[in-house]
Amino acid sequence: LLRVKGTQRLPVTFWKNMYRTSCSKLTGAWKCLQLDGLVGSSVQQKLFANASRSHMSARSLIQLCKKNQAEWITFQHLCFLKRQYVKSSSGLCQRARPRQEPVSAVLDDRDDSMVRQVQQIPALKPEPGTEVSTCATESNQVEPEADRVARLEARQWKEMRVQYSDLPGIYARLSKLKLTALVVTTAAAGFAMAPVPFDPVGFLMASLGTGLSSCTANSINQYFEVPFDSNMNRTKNRPLVRGQISPLHAVSFALACGIPGVTLLTLGVNPLTGFLGALNIFLYTCCYTPLKRLSIANTWVGAVVGAIPPVMGWTAATGSLDPGALLLGAFLFSWQFPHFNALSWNLREDYSRGGYRMMSVTHPGLCKRVALRHSVGLIFLSALGPVLDVTTWTFPLVSLPINLYISYLAFRFYRHGDRQNSRKLFFCSLWHLPMLLLLALTCKKSRVAQDEAAVTSSSASLAL
């Protein structure tokens, strides 16, 4: 009994009761104690077995961590941002630091074997009276070892050394400066179209915050798309693809632009504009960028991203989301389809090599129909300007010629989807949007007229 219970002593009452009970009861008690001991021993054996197994699993986990220590540290400390993209036989991959490739490559071994074979051929003695060409004598000469090493190093994929004077140009390409300028211009147009007095300080803060947010979105987009940009002729010279800066440098630049940009829009302008700026960064980097390789719905998501900046300009001036802001966003939303569909039509080979699922690649008929549909839709959106008290009734009339012209080019692109018609539609879209926004600004409904209309409506309601 003491062996079963271990070091615990049984109470005195147990021994007194044991002597007073009968033999049958003692036999039953003894069987219970035996059963208790068997159950305890089996449980103890299972605990020891589980302990040994857990010990083995812990030991195997430690060994696994020791074997893959570089990857473990990479995921724990986010060292993957320090990795460089390096070209290999299978494509473009990442590694912690550029390894020193062996000097001798497969191609150069073949070259050496060819040189050795040439050396084994005995030199032919020229016959008297014949001239020996200098090319034959030069081909038999052995290449110096220093020249051979220099030639092999020139063929290797190396990290480019960038001077501090080159950083402004690299940052401009990383942030897609032309696209950022277009985003700031549309945001400024939304600010100017708002029916409130013009505030220069608010205008500068809204433009600066919008530009910084656009730089952040474009930089993060290039960080995610490096392996795919390397396969496209249009994007293969981007800074991250060429290795001019490290991914850590690019992400640091994006954070240095995004945090002050969103903070400036939130605290310096108003929280609604800051929310729209943060939402635009999220949509561009986390929705539009991965959708480009999954579905043609990326074009519609990208159109929403392009439609938000004029809405941000309107909300920066008024602090509210009015129908006029939604109308300006609708202008940008519809304009992007003839613009981008015409651009992507001539880049179908590039997009297919990069693995992007664009309408021009997977659904060419839909690409042309959507471009025509939204070009015609610009005419009806222009007619909504005076209806929503954003512009005067002259705006639909003066904007009708340019809207009809882009619709005509979109119809020709729909009928004959060739490179010439797509280029004409694309270049027309480049001047169509600034002209449309300028006409809307010149035909903007004055604040006095809007106040008079509000007073008239209020007096009419009081009279009723």
UniProtKB/TrEMBL annotation:
<comment type="similarity">
    <text>Belongs to the UbiA prenyltransferase family.</text>
</comment>
<protein>
    <recommendedName>
        <fullName>Protoheme IX farnesyltransferase, mitochondrial</fullName>
        <ecNumber>2.5.1.141</ecNumber>
    </recommendedName>
</protein>
<keyword id="KW-0809">Transit peptide</keyword>
<dbReference type="GO" id="GO:0017004">
    <property type="term" value="P:cytochrome complex assembly"/>
</dbReference>
<dbReference type="InterPro" id="IPR030470">
    <property type="entry name" value="UbiA_prenylTrfase_CS"/>
</dbReference>
<feature type="transmembrane region" description="Helical">
    <location>
        <begin position="179"/>
        <end position="198"/>
    </location>
</feature>
<feature type="transmembrane region" description="Helical">
    <location>
        <begin position="272"/>
        <end position="291"/>
    </location>
</feature>
<keyword id="KW-1133">Transmembrane helix</keyword>
<dbReference type="GO" id="GO:0006784">
    <property type="term" value="P:heme A biosynthetic process"/>
</dbReference>
<keyword id="KW-0812">Transmembrane</keyword>
<dbReference type="InterPro" id="IPR000537">
    <property type="entry name" value="UbiA_prenyltransferase"/>
</dbReference>
<dbReference type="Pfam" id="PF01040">
    <property type="entry name" value="UbiA"/>
</dbReference>
<keyword id="KW-0350">Heme biosynthesis</keyword>
<feature type="transmembrane region" description="Helical">
    <location>
        <begin position="298"/>
        <end position="317"/>
    </location>
</feature>
<keyword id="KW-0472">Membrane</keyword>
<feature type="transmembrane region" description="Helical">
    <location>
        <begin position="425"/>
        <end position="442"/>
    </location>
</feature>
<dbReference type="GO" id="GO:0008495">
    <property type="term" value="F:protoheme IX farnesyltransferase activity"/>
</dbReference>
<dbReference type="InterPro" id="IPR016315">
    <property type="entry name" value="Protohaem_IX_farnesylTrfase_mt"/>
</dbReference>
<keyword id="KW-0808">Transferase</keyword>
<dbReference type="InterPro" id="IPR006369">
    <property type="entry name" value="Protohaem_IX_farnesylTrfase"/>
</dbReference>
<dbReference type="InterPro" id="IPR044878">
    <property type="entry name" value="UbiA_sf"/>
</dbReference>
<feature type="transmembrane region" description="Helical">
    <location>
        <begin position="393"/>
        <end position="413"/>
    </location>
</feature>
<keyword id="KW-0496">Mitochondrion</keyword>
<dbReference type="GO" id="GO:0031966">
    <property type="term" value="C:mitochondrial membrane"/>
</dbReference>
